């Protein structure tokens, strides 16, 4: 990791609870606020990492706008071959929930696009995304959300 990170001097890495974090040295304030927002209770079971991610987005939106609770949500999960049994966290940050999702899914990672203008009402894929590793691994250039220009 140290060798890789020398290629990206604006970023640093650390490991916590079996999850490797690659973070910008200067975290954008709104991204930091989103990641540190506490979710009162996050509970879900027997579904995909993508579905768990959608549930987390929904809980974050309800936290930011309690009146949105009756609006509902809909999503389609594409990763039904490796369901996560359950997650039940109380008082966890968005970052902690995302890390628990990828820890439980194992061959996964969560990523955040470079910058956001708002957390409230922003689609989930503009706040974060869950990436499922392919077996066998795909070349970096073929990963769905990797934009090498973001690292220049």
Question: Which tags fit this structure?
Answer:
152 residues, alpha+beta, two-stranded antiparallel ribbon, 5 helices, 6 strands, globular
Task: Give structural notes.
This protein is of the alpha+beta class and 152 residues long. The protein has one domain (2-151). 30% of the residues lie in helices and 26% in strands. The strands form 3 sheets. The protein has a two-stranded antiparallel ribbon. A hairpin with a 2-residue loop joins strand 1 (11-16) and strand 2 (19-24). The longest helix has 16 residues, at 49-64. It is globular, with a radius of gyration of 16 Å. The model has no long low-confidence stretch (mean pLDDT 80).
Offer a concise description of the structure.
With 152 residues, the protein is of the alpha+beta class. It is built from five helices and six strands; from the N terminus they run αββαβαβαβαβ. The protein has one domain (2-151).
In total, how many domains does the architecture comprise? 1
Low-confidence stretches: none
Strand adjacency order, main sheet: 1-2
Which geometry do the CA atoms define?
globular
> What oligomeric state do these chains adopt?
single chain
What is the tally of helical segments? 5
The class by helix and strand makeup works out as: alpha+beta
- Give the mean pLDDT: 80
Proportion of beta-strand residues:
25-35%
Order of helices and strands: HEEHEHEHEHE
Helix content: 25-40%
State the major sheet: 2 strands, antiparallel
Radius of gyration, rounded?
Answer: 16 Å
Work out the number of β strands.
Answer: 6
